[in-house]
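Figure 3 (text version): structure tokens given as input.
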């Protein structure tokens, strides 16, 4: 006893439904993974920002409020919950302000570094 051409129709419908559900599950898994990676990246950026801010504020507190010399602050390691911050403090006294330096100082600098291409007086006049 045959039913016509409808043998296996339900099987095909079920298989197509399973394929669609499998694709939907794969899409949800991909989107979930992407969201988790994005959240982890955002958390890491926040932790780094908090560590940097904490180190900066602690260095400022030690240098300006406690009036500690830069030599004591330089190289100090502070352990916090999410990482370790190493403080570095350097004096600005040995640096040259290129915009406000006299031409003689700039010419001497050019001579000291041995830069080719132009005379020290020409560099200082720029």
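Below: residues designed for each position.
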């Amino acid at each position: 006893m045959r039913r016509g051409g409808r043998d296996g129709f339900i099987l095909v419908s079920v298989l197509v439904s399973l394929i669609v559900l499998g694709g939907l599950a794969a899409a949800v898994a991909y989107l979930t993974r992407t969201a988790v990676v994005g959240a982890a990246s955002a958390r890491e950026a926040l932790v780094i920002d908090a560590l940097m801010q904490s180190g900066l504020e602690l260095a400022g507190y030690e240098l300006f409020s406690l009036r500690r010399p830069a030599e004591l602050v330089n190289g100090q390691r502070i352990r916090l919950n999410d990482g370790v911050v190493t403080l570095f403090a350097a004096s600005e006294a040995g640096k040259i302000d290129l915009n406000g330096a006299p031409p003689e100082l700039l010419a001497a600098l050019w001579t000291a570094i041995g830069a080719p291409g132009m005379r020290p007086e020409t560099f200082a006049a720029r």
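The two ends are 103 Å apart (CA to CA).
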